[in-house]
């Protein structure tokens, strides 16, 4: 947040705002802009973090780096938390918000939110056989566990060691388990999008940006939340 202020992107009317401690009236808050676009005053906050590698999807941890470490100190009291989870080594789009209802809907299987992953794997190149298997909805049969039927998923072949996978559910380690069931191993996993939410051009690991009003509306529309 301080970086946004220092960059001169936040304005009140025609004046650049640089003081993070500036107190605004309700009328003034309605006149704030970010990059020329109105900033919606709300008790709910929404951010898209580029989750880096070797980072826990947690707000605090005594041993390992976590996504909470990337939250500016002035936001740590706003009850912001990640929506869903990404594994320790998985990178990419992670929504942070204190909007509990939206968070619940985005993680509920009822709303079928699409999540797109770029997968780098080892083993034989995936083929049209796996494309058809994933589209049908594969059943995971793992030792010590009851068979688990998965929903249809879109597998897009990119190269001999890379593919794109589109899911509408988020079971634990799902991508790794799906690839393992075909005899492949995931080397790297990157989430490119979650619903309509994507990383901004030039956004680097560990950086986050506040969602625009249009991005917030698009997320809510996808879960019929008005």
Structure characterization notes:
The mean pLDDT is 89. The protein is 19% helix and 28% strand. Strands 5, 6, 7, 8, 11, 12, 13, 14 and 15 form a nine-stranded mixed sheet that branches. Strands 2-1-3-4 form a four-stranded antiparallel sheet, with no helix packed on it. The chain has helices at residues 2-6, 26-29, 100-107, 128-136, 174-181, 213-221, and strands spanning 10-12, 15-16, 32-34, 37-38, 46-51, 81-82, 91-97, 115-122, 139-140, 148-149, 154-159, 162-167, 185-194, 197-198, 208-210. Strand 13 (185-194) and strand 14 form a beta hairpin. It has 226 residues and is of the alpha+beta class.
Helix fraction by DSSP (H/I, runs of at least 4): 10-25%
Proportion of residues in extended strands: 25-35%
CATH arch. level architecture of the largest domain: 2-Layer Sandwich
Query: Distance between termini?
Result: 27 Å
What string, H for helix and E for strand, traces the elements in order?
HEEHEEEEEHEHEEEEHEEEH
Class inferred from helices and paired strands: alpha+beta
Number of domains: 3
**CATH superfamily label of the largest domain:** Pseudouridine synthase I, catalytic domain, N-terminal subdomain
CATH topology name of the largest domain: Alpha-Beta Plaits
Q: Any idea what the radius of gyration is?
A: 20 Å
Largest sheet: 9 strands, mixed
- What general outline do the C-alpha atoms trace? elongated
Q: pLDDT average, as an integer? A: 89
CATH domain class of the largest domain: Alpha Beta
Which ranges are low-confidence, i.e. pLDDT below 50, for 5 or more consecutive residues? none
Q: If helices are DSSP runs of H or I spanning 4 or more residues, what is the number of helices?
A: 6
């Amino acid at each position: 947040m301080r970086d946004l202020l220092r960059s001169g992107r936040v304005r009140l009317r025609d004046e650049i705002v640089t003081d993070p401690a500036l107190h605004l009236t309700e009328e003034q808050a309605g006149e704030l802009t970010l990059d020329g676009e109105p900033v919606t005053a709300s008790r709910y906050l929404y951010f898209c973090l580029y989750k880096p590698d070797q980072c826990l999807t947690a707000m605090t941890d005594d041993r390992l780096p976590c996504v909470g470490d990337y939250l500016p100190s002035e936001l740590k009291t706003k009850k912001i938390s990640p929506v869903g989870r990404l594994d320790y080594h998985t990178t990419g789009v992670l929504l942070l918000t204190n909007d509990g209802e939206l968070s619940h809907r985005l993680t509920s299987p009822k709303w079928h939110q699409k999540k797109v992953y770029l997968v780098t794997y080892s083993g034989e190149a995936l083929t049209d056989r796996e494309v058809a298997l994933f589209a049908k909805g594969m059943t995971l049969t793992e030792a010590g566990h009851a068979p688990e039927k998965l929903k249809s998923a879109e597998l897009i072949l990119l190269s001999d060691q890379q593919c794109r996978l589109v899911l509408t559910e988020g079971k634990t380690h799902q991508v790794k388990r799906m690839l393992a069931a075909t005899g492949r191993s995931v080397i790297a996993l990157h989430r490119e999008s979650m619903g309509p939410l994507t990383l901004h051009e030039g956004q680097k690991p560990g950086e986050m940006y506040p969602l625009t009003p249009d991005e917030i509306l698009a997320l809510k529309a996808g879960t019929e939340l008005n």
